From TrEMBL:
RCK C-terminal domain sequence ranges: 137-218
InterPro entries: K_uptake_TrkA, NAD(P)-bd_dom_sf, RCK_C, RCK_C_sf, RCK_N, Trk_Ktr_HKT_K-transport
Pfam families referenced in this protein's UniProt entry, alphabetically: TrkA_C, TrkA_N
Keywords, comma-separated and alphabetical: Ion transport, NAD, Potassium, Potassium transport, Transport
SUPFAM superfamilies named among the record's database cross-references: NAD(P)-binding Rossmann-fold domains, TrkA C-terminal domain-like
Domain RCK N-terminal: 1-117
Protein name: Trk system potassium uptake protein TrkA
Organism in which the protein naturally occurs: Streptomyces ossamyceticus
Length: 225
């Protein structure tokens, strides 16, 4: 898979390193000469250019990319890169970094963004996840379909503790994708039982989040009363 990353700062280089280890072809683009540090990610291609300019993206052969990641520290740049990648080059998957949470509402399909990653939101979500059992935590927003990746740690008093996955009537537009149990990562089947303390990851429509949280957090005595 060919991936172009706009922004060769610490975030862009870190992403590049991870993807290279997984066998992907990486192109790092940055307009600042000081950001071009080939020795830090020697296996990547490097391009000194402005990713907001069509001529630069032509040189980068963006039409050959499977994924474009807009990872600069400037939200305006990330939006422009995302829009150009999607509308001018038809890149199938566009991932954009959100630096200022106030701008998160802009990072949607109208700007060519398939997945928006808000670092401040993710950090706060991880803090909430660490201290909040039974509370739904939004980890990631997907633009298409208005869906989110959400997490909830099943509380001991939940009525669903001990229930098989296939017996649960999940809300519409909701899918349980992973169960994290201790150090194990489980792909859920209908026969798997939910256990207190399980970290449950869902892809869910935003309109269903409250309903999902209510379902998972209902107490045993409430369910039987």
């Amino acid at each position: 898979m060919r991936v172009a990353i706009a922004g060769a700062g610490a975030v862009g280089r870190s992403i590049a390193g991870e993807l290279l280890e997984n066998g992907h072809e990486i192109l790092l683009i940055d307009k600042a000469p000081t950001a071009i540090s080939v020795e830090r990610v020697p296996m990547a291609e490097w391009l000194l250019a402005d990713a907001c300019e069509i001529t630069s993206l032509d040189e980068a052969a963006l039409q050959r990319c499977n994924v474009v990641i807009a990872a600069t520290g400037d939200d305006k740049v990330n939006l422009v890169v995302s829009l150009l990648a999607k509308t001018e080059y038809g890149v199938p998957r566009v991932v954009a970094r959100v630096n200022n949470p106030k701008n998160e509402w802009l990072f949607n399909e109208s700007w060519g963004v398939d997945v928006a990653v808000s670092t401040p939101r993710l950090m706060s979500a991880l803090v909430e996840e660490a201290v909040s059992v039974g509370d739904l935590v939004r980890l990631l927003r997907f633009s298409h379909g208005d869906a989110n990746l959400v997490e909830l740690t099943l509380p001991p008093e939940s009525a669903l503790a001990g229930t098989q996955v296939g017996e649960v009537e999940w809300p519409e537009d909701t899918s349980l994708v992973t169960i994290i149990r201790g150090t194990r990562v489980l792909t859920p089947t209908r026969e798997d039982s939910l256990e207190a303390g399980d970290e449950l990851l869902f892809v869910a429509a935003q309109a269903r989040e409250e309903q999902l949280e209510d379902l998972l957090s209902v107490r045993r005595e409430d369910a039987t009363s």
